[in-house]
């Protein structure tokens, strides 16, 4: 390490001495040799990812740098390009210890995209180079490649070392199958092994395409997962005027008939608008044993809900005139949805007390899409009024609307496809990232508790 510390100064001193004492040819050769030595020693700087450079997307990695000068200050940078071509990046400044090492699990960032000890801060703090873009990773077949770089803090910021982190969405042995059967349009993920496995229906989005991220990662953890869309995907209608509960019942029945499925009932994983679809499934359909409701509403929203051609609930509407503009030019739509508890909207409320399965309610307290915490409180109170205790609930202070599997870039604002404008989603990046880590583990524990199978085999590995 001492040689590395003195190397640059040694080059300068040698050059000055040669200019005064040695013949021209000798000076040239010695300077070349000394410069080569300096470059060789600089090449000893290395950045490592532990336990390995390839991992599942929802797994943490330990980032370490070795071979630096004692107490050297460097910039750490992370960079990725999503499937839409949007570049996300972050950077943080670190000071090496006396041995010339930096360990993100131990050392604090001095400045940059975040400060303090944040082992995975370079990932969750990444921001898009293009404003108001959400990280998009809908196709699970392609891994997300993240490049970690170590740069000189001074001068031109020369790159000292780099390493690539390949973050995959499908564990070894997990199968992916596009489903086009009857009315169902989606993608099925099945773990390796004979099973039996618990079954989960993933309602990441109601339509406009599919995101396979949650489904593929859950399958890698030992669940048979079907993710479906209700419109705007494959040959489905591009727009929707109403929601048919029959469609989701058909998807459930498809899941339950699969050979590797061992759970008697099905779990449903939702987010935002699909939260009320999941609540309705549990209330009206047999075989829904576990529902994860993430930042949803306590009432049926936007579109009327039908089952067997009969209207179950009208859609709770919204008034965009209540949107709050901000100095940044982006809107806050938290209060645009009508009050579901108002007398004129009582018909939109979903009777979850009819459900026989269990609920996990997840609410972000800084959700700016709507007041998820208030909706969760109403759901909990409704169950309690009917003497039901078939639920768990968790709140996350400082978290925003889009709670997803951990270690992806935090999204501050983007286009709201219903509102048709750029809105704020809420949350503080550090708190939001911590909530995603906790929530993702909680979801898996919840499903395993309430979708029990005999002789369930292990999860997939890389």
SSE topology sketch:
Elements: H1 2-21, H2 24-42, E1 46-50, E2 54-56, E3 62-66, E4 73-81, E5 87-95, E6 102-103, E7 111-112, H3 121-124, E8 127-128, E9 144-152, E10 159-168, E11 175-181, E12 184-190, E13 197-203, H4 213-219, E14 224-228, E15 243-244, H5 245-256, E16 261-270, H6 274-284, E17 288-294, E18 305-307, E19 310-313, E20 324-325, E21 331-332, E22 358-364, H7 372-385, E23 391-396, E24 413-416, E25 421-424, H8 429-450
Helix pairs in contact: 1-2
What's the overall average pLDDT, rounded? 88
Structural class by secondary-structure content:
alpha/beta
By DSSP, the count of extended strands is 25
* Oligomeric form: single chain
Radius of gyration equals: 27 Å
Let me know the largest β-sheet. Answer: 8 strands, mixed
Structural shape: globular
Cα distance, first to last residue? 36 Å
User: How many separate helices?
Assistant: 8
Q: How big a fraction of the residues is strand? A: 25-35%
Helix content: 10-25%
Spatial strand sequence of the major β-sheet: 11-12-14-13-16-17-22-23
- Low-confidence parts lasting 5 or more residues at pLDDT below 50? 1-22, 30-41
């Amino acid at each position: 390490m001492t040689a590395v510390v003195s190397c640059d100064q040694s080059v300068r001193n040698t050059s000055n001495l040669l200019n005064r004492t040695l013949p021209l040819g000798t000076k040239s050769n010695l300077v070349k040799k000394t410069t080569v030595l300096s470059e060789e020693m600089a090449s000893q700087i290395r950045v490592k990812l532990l336990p390995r450079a390839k991992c599942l997307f929802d797994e943490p990695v330990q980032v370490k740098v070795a071979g630096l000068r004692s107490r050297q200050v460097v910039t750490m940078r992370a960079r990725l390009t999503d499937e839409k071509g949007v570049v996300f990046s972050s950077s943080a400044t670190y000071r090496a210890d006396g041995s010339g090492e930096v360990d993100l699990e131990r050392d604090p960032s001095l400045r940059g995209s975040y400060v303090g000890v944040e082992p995975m801060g370079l990932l969750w703090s990444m921001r898009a180079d293009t404003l108001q873009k959400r990280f998009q990773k809908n196709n699970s077949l392609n891994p997300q490649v993240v490049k970690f770089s170590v740069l000189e803090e001074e001068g031109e910021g020369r790159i000292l070392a780099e390493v690539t982190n390949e973050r995959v969405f499908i564990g070894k042995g997990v199968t992916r199958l596009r489903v086009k059967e009857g009315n169902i349009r989606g993608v099925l993920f099945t773990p390796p092994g004979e099973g039996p496995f618990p079954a989960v229906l993933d309602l990441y989005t109601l339509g406009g395409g599919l995101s396979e991220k949650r489904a593929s990662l859950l399958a890698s953890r030992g669940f048979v997962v079907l993710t479906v869309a209700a419109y705007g995907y494959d040959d489905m209608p591009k727009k929707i005027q109403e929601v048919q509960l029959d469609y989701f019942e058909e998807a459930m029945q498809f899941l339950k008939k699969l050979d590797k499925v061992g759970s008697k009932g099905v779990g449903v994983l939702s987010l935002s608008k699909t939260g009320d679809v999941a609540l309705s499934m549990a209330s009206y359909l047999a075989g829904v044993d576990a529902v994860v409701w993430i930042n949803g509403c306590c009432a049926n929203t936007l579109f009327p809900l039908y089952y067997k051609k009969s209207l179950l609930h009208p859609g709770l509407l919204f008034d965009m005139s209540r949107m709050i503009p901000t100095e940044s030019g982006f809107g806050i739509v938290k209060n645009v949805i009508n009050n579901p508890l108002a007398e004129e909207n009582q018909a939109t409320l979903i009777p979850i007390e009819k459900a026989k399965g269990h609920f996990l309610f997840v609410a972000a307290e800084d959700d700016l899409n709507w007041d998820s915490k208030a909706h969760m409180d109403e759901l909990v109170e409704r169950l309690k009024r009917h003497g039901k205790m078939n639920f768990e609930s968790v709140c996350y202070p400082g978290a925003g609307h889009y709670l997803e599997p951990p270690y992806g870039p935090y999204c501050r604002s983007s286009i709201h496809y219903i509102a048709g404008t750029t809105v704020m989603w809420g949350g503080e990046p550090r708190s939001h990232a911590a909530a995603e880590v906790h929530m993702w583990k909680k979801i898996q524990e919840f499903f395993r508790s309430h979708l029990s199978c005999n002789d369930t085999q292990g999860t997939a590995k890389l």
